[in-house]
Each structure stands twice: as C-alpha cells, then as structure tokens.
Design a protein that fits this description.
The complex is a heterodimer of chains A (257) and B (376). Chain A has 257 residues and is α/β, with parallel strands linked by helices. Helix content of chain A is 37%, strand content 26%. The chains are: A alpha/beta (257), B alpha/beta (376).
Chain lengths: 257, 376
C-alpha cells in the first residue's frame, strides 16, 4: 500500500521552477533514501510535502493515505501524521526543549514525563538539555538528536528527514539511525530520508533508494546499489546507467497492486 | 483564639487581597520573610516573619525616620529632590513608604514582599521607599505596585533609594499592574559598594496609560555589579518609556541590561539604556529585543554607551521587529496551530529566566506573565 502519492507535481521557489511534473509513490512501512546533488531540489521536495511557506505548488496533487493534502496547512499535515526534521532548525528564545517535547507528546507544560519518556530522552542524551532554550548554543549533533526525538514523540506515520546525518558525530549518527529504524519498524511507519552519505544505511534498513536530478526522480531500486553506482559513476552516470528510471518503479508498483 | 489580630494580612478585605495576589503578593505570610502593605495613603501592614526576626527590619519609612536619626543621611541622597515636578511633589508631601533593612550577614531565604496599592479614584499616591542591604547580606525583594481594577484614574509617584553595601546581594523585582488610565512615575536610584550585587527587575504586563522611568545605579565599589532586566508587555494603547542607567565608577565594576518588549494594539514603547564607564577595567553589556505585533504600535530602542577611561569595555545589541516566520512554521510542524505557535513564542520571549530569581519566585512570576499573555 502507498502512504503518499505525488501526481504531476510542479513547484516554484521565488518564481523559479525547481520540480517539474513529478510522479512517485512512497510505500507504507518502508524507508526510502533520496540521493541527489546539491541544488537538485531534495529540500524543496520535502518542504513542499510538509507545506512549508515559500514553496509554491504550481500544478499537481499530493495524496497522503488517500487524502488530498495539497492545500492543507503545515499543522494540519503534522496532525495527519507527516513530520519533518530541519537541517537548520531555528533558535527560539525562551522556549525550552522540555516544553517543546511535552507539546510534541500532546502534554501540557505542567505535565510530567513518564518513566518511558524519560528513558528515551536519556537515550538521546538530552536530559541535561530540557531546560535549555531550543537550539540555542546546541552543537550539530545535539540539534539532530533534538530534532529526531521531537519527531518520534510526535508519533508520525511518515517521517521526512533532511540530511539527518550531516554535521553529526559518529556516535550521534549511530544513535539517530538506530532510533529511526526502531521507530519505523515497530510502528510500521514510512520515511523519506535525504542523504549524501551511505553511513545512515548501516542502521536504517531502507527498502528503496532513488535519485533526484533536474527536478525528476530516477531509479527506484536497492539503495545500496544506487549509492555504489553514484560513488563510481556520479549522479548523472548512475541515472544514465540505470535507465529503469521512475517508469520501472511505477510498473513495479502496478504489479504489487 | 480571636480570628482578627492587629497587623494581620487577613484584616485586609478579601477582594483587595485577591487583586494583590494577581500582582505577585503572597498572602500566606509564612512564605515570605516579611510583608509590607501600603494602601492609598496609609501603611496598614508591616510585619517580619518570626523566622527572620533579628535578620531584617521592616516598617513604614516615617516610623523609621523617627526611630533612627541616621536615616536622614539616606533620604534624598541618591535621588535629587529637585529633579522634576514629580520628585518635588513627593518631597513636599508623601504618605509613607517602606523602610527595609537587611542586617549584616543576614540571609533571607524567603523573599521579602511589599505591596503598594491604589483603591481610591483620582488619587495621586506618593511614596518614598528606602532599602538598605547591609554588608554581606542576601535578599530577594518582590514589590507589587497596583491599582484596584475598579479604579479608573490614578497616579503613582514613588521614590526609591536603594543601598547595597559591601559584598551584599540584593535582587529587587518590581511588578507593575496598573490600568489604562494610570500615570506612573517611579524615581529610583541605587548605590552599590565593593563586591555588592544589585539585580533590578521590572515586569509590566497590564496596560498602563503612561509610565516613564529611568532608574540609575551607581556602581561605586570595586567589583560591584548591577543588572537591570525588564519584561514589558505593551497593549491597549500603553505608553511606556522605560530605561535604566548604570554609572560604573568602581574598579572592575560591571553592568548588564536585558530588555524584552512586546508592542501591540496601538502601544508606544521606548526602551532606553545607558552604561557609562568611568573607571578602567569596567565592563557593560546592553541587550534590547522587541517584537512589534501590528502597524499601529511603535517600538524604539535607544542604547547609549559612554566610555570615559581607556580599558572600558561596553557593548550592546538591539533588535526590533516582527516575530520570525521561520520560528512559527517550525512550531507548526510540531502540530501547533499558528495561534498556539505565536503564543508560545511570545511567552518564551517574555522569559523569566533573565530575571535571575530563585526557583519559587521564578514560577510565581512566570504564572503572572502567562496569565497576561493568555490567548495573545
């Protein structure tokens, strides 16, 4: 079953087309890895899926669990179960990580964390950050850990992760990747993960990988194979080599339906 | 046991106490080191918690002046009688005020509180307060100045002179809860001796017709320190002209000023700050941040830095403008509606953390701020 269907999606940012007539589906309970060179539109894609301002949908439709969400606001999408992690999350004066985590859990600021929640926070090594202003003075790894635990506390159905592995130390990366895998595996949720590196795939068992190049998806297939090809041939070389392209993905999907 | 004893807070009408409570007054007196109540033109309550007897003195200033001849040396020493029409009026005639003296080396583990309240309409309340934090003493004072919500017009003129002696630590938090027709003119100054620390906090959350103040701290001692922090919520056509000035005369003295201001609904807010470095090796930093919520309001930041000796190091940062759209969107990705996100950002912006208060007072003041910005 598909959790997300994107049909003929074209997106402009500041009057410039970034994505053109994209068509693809994401599968339920599967993690998808999204590769692509800088500037290929990866962040534009997940920002559009989340409904962030500044990304203008010129044409096309986004269906989430069969429901058209193309014109839904950010918070409506979040409530339906789509969440996003930011590459550069903002610093918010006076808003404490602990309070935000409670909001993510649907708790009031006066509520306490349960023992289980405290354990998760401790596992993310964020116990000492609960009284800190969100992202103020956080290191790269601390930001990413804070982003991912917020997402997990939101109990989403689809995680959109923008380079969760960039600027992160080895230990934090391992922790983040294992937590993502644990969450998606135990809840049967899906993920779309932007990455430039293969490291995250050591712990996240991704079902599919694909390349975003010139506003189009290519090669939905084994993520590790794609990564190897990109390393050998470059993005364009990989795409040229694997001319299965998105049509292959589509037909494969039709087969399973 | 008689239900009414003289000099008990319970003798004050319940509905007045309720209003006072909203402005930070703790009516369970055993949770305060001492309580002082001045209503309209009369001191009606002044009492030290028995746990703190021998550690502090608390009484009406007029009583104190009769008791201590030396106190004359502290009156009108830091504030000039002839400074303006308001100081002149108070010098001519005033109804009292508090005298607080924390004795040498005494540590007040509970806050000391005062409440200056107006219940009569068209009253011009005039008070003169003196605080002396003796050598190596430590105290937190919370003073609530308010007007009963049923009173339409009033004015409050208050002189406060504060002395922080050697190595003493005084955290003084003033909460103002006025109404849309109140004129407010506090005139305050503090003097800080060697190693003394003075923290002056100002919290104004309710609308006010017109408040103007510019307290001055003279850091005359070596290693003396002052912090001025203010949390200002200007709404319903409030006019606020709030500043503070630090004069760094002592060697290695330090000043820090942090202001957070929100302006909406036609409010005009001017936030000033001046740090004057008169001694080498003194340091100062001034931070002003303002959020402007609509086109009818105005926010103006006026920082002034003066260096008179080489080696002086004084800096400032100021930012005024709208709420960051990126912050709103970020919180919306965490399932908050736009309104909830804005409200959370506003409450965070009015962060009590900047006031340097002990935990219990911190949460008390946070709840006052949260109540005022509810649904903002």
């Amino acid at each position: 079953m598909d959790i997300l269907e994107v049909k003929d999606l074209s997106v402009k940012v500041e009057d410039k087309y970034i994505l053109k007539n994209m068509n693809f589906n994401l599968k339920q309970g599967v993690s998808h890895i999204l590769f692509g060179p800088n500037g290929s539109g990866k962040t534009t894609l997940i920002s559009t899926l989340m409904g962030l301002p500044g990304y203008e949908v010129v044409s096309g439709k986004i269906l989430f669990m069969g429901q058209d969400i193309t014109n839904k606001s950010v918070d409506e999408r979040a409530k339906l179960g789509i969440v996003v992690s930011f590459q550069n999350p903002p610093e918010i004066t006076g808003v404490r990580l602990g309070d935000l985590l409670k909001l993510c859990l649907g708790k009031a600021p006066t509520d306490k964390f349960t023992e289980e929640e405290q354990k998760r926070i401790e596992a993310f090594r964020l116990t000492n950050f609960l009284d800190r202003e969100i992202n103020v003075g956080f290191s790269g790894g601390e930001r990413k850990r804070s982003e991912i635990i917020q997402l997990i506390f939101l109990k989403p159905k689809l995680l959109l992760l923008d380079e969760p592995d960039s600027g992160v130390d080895v230990e934090s990366l391992r922790l983040i990747a294992m937590e993502i895998q644990h969450y998606t595996e135990t809840t049967g949720s899906s993920a779309l993960i932007i990455t430039h590196k293969g490291d995250i795939m050591e712990h996240v068992k991704a079902g599919y990988g694909c390349i975003l190049l010139e506003g189009q998806f290519h090669c939905f297939t084994e993520p590790l194979d794609i990564y190897d090809d990109i390393k050998k041939l470059g993005y364009e070389g990989c795409v040229a080599c694997r001319m299965r392209k998105r049509e292959g993905w589509q037909s494969e999907q039709q087969k399973t339906q | 046991m008689s239900s009414k004893k003289p000099n008990e807070l319970v003798n004050i009408p319940h509905e007045i106490l309720e209003e006072a409570q909203k402005a930070g007054v703790e009516i369970q007196e055993n949770k305060r080191a001492g309580t002082f109540f001045h209503i309209d033109q009369k001191t009606i309550h002044s009492k030290v918690n028995e746990l703190f007897e021998g550690k502090l003195e608390l009484m009406d200033i007029k009583t104190a002046l009769q008791k201590y001849d030396w106190l004359d040396n502290y009156m009108w020493k830091l504030v000039d009688k002839n400074k303006d029409e308001f100081t002149k009026k108070v010098a001519q005639d005033y109804s009292g005020g508090y005298f607080m003296r924390i004795l040498p080396r005494a540590e007040l583990t509970f806050p000391l509180q005062s409440c200056l309240l107006i219940t009569q309409k068209n009253l011009e309340q005039r008070v003169h307060n003196i605080i002396i934090a003796e050598e190596a003493s430590k105290a937190n004072i919370i003073t609530s100045c308010l007007q009963h919500s049923s009173v339409p017009n009033a004015a409050h003129l208050g002189i406060s002179e504060i002395y922080v002696k050697k190595n003493a630590m005084l955290n003084f938090t003033m909460i103002h809860q006025w109404s849309e027709n109140t004129l407010v003119r506090p005139r305050s100054a503090a003097e800080i001796d060697d190693g003394g620390i003075f923290v002056s906090n100002y919290v104004c959350m309710r609308p006010v017709r017109d408040v103007q103040m510019y307290p001055i701290a003279y850091c005359k001692g070596a290693n003396s320190r002052v912090s001025f922090n203010s949390i200002l919520y200007g709404h319903k056509n409030s006019q606020m002209d709030i500043g503070s000035k630090a004069v760094l005369r002592g060697k290695s003295s330090k000043a820090e000023m942090i202001s957070r201001a929100i302006a909406r609904e036609g409010s005009k807010m001017i936030i000033r700050g001046m740090i004057e470095g008169d001694s080498s090796e003194c340091k100062g930093h001034l931070e002003c941040r303002g959020l402007l919520m609509d086109d009818k309001s105005l926010l103006q930041s006026i920082p002034e830095l003066i260096a008179k000796k080489k080696g002086v190091e004084i800096t400032h940062e100021a930012a005024v403008g709208k709420i960051s759209e990126k912050e709103i969107t970020y919180l919306m990705t965490r399932k908050l509606s736009r309104e909830q996100a804005v409200s959370l950002i506003i409450r965070g912006f009015m962060d009590v953390g900047i006031l340097g208060l002990p935990a219990a007072l911190n949460s008390e003041i946070k709840s006052i701020i949260d109540a005022s910005t509810e649904g903002a």
